[in-house]
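Example (one chain per record):
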Amino acid sequence: MLTILFGSILSRKILIPQKSSIPDVFKLAMVQTVLQYIFYYIGLANTSGVNASIINASNVFVSLLFSCLLFKFEKLTTRKIFGSVIGFLGVILINISGAAINGNFSFAGEGAIFMSCLSYGLSSCLIKRYSQRENPVTLSGYQFFTGGIVLTIIGFLCGGRITHVSTQAVMLLIYLALVSSIAYTLWGILLKYNPVGKVAVFGFMNPIFGVILSAWLLGEQNQAFSIIGVVSLLLTCIGIYIVNSNSKIKNLS
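Predicted structure:
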């Protein structure tokens, strides 16, 4: 609702999707909101913040592979392949090294985070395609709204309830809503006017901030600044840089 509200204010009109875009909104909601959020938060509950940040960075490479191989938005070059291999080595290293706090790879933890990356990569390409015929802010707002309803129904059916209400809890909820509405709206606009691979370069900072904030806020300093943790982070970031450096991808929009 916040995304639709912000977009309507900026456009000076109420954002309503075209009738032909309703199927696109529903498909995007299932992939970007429902599947991605289910996998991400289940995974985050079963692994460390450092692990989640590094594995989640693989969404850059997943987005690239989907864009090149499935949607044919871009060409898969040797540089992109090499960068993806280097980046995935970082993701693999953090999981086989025993650097995780629980010392094990878990399909409900690290595996779920990677499934979230697959959902993210697919949704990035879908936004790129659908935004050619619909306002990306409208797409983002209504897919969030639709996906949010589905998630709420699933949550209640699985026994979820909001049992703790306080000023801090409400402020946190508002903060998370703003993060999603503003970030994904801007991301959708960027994907409309730029190649997926070029936009993905901004993902270079995600694992860095994720690891630093995990160390600061979650007390995971030992893992974040261990040799394995640092090497994994560097490999992932180097891979993202190689994939996006000196990119001459044709703007298909």
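Caption: The longest helix spans residues 167-193.
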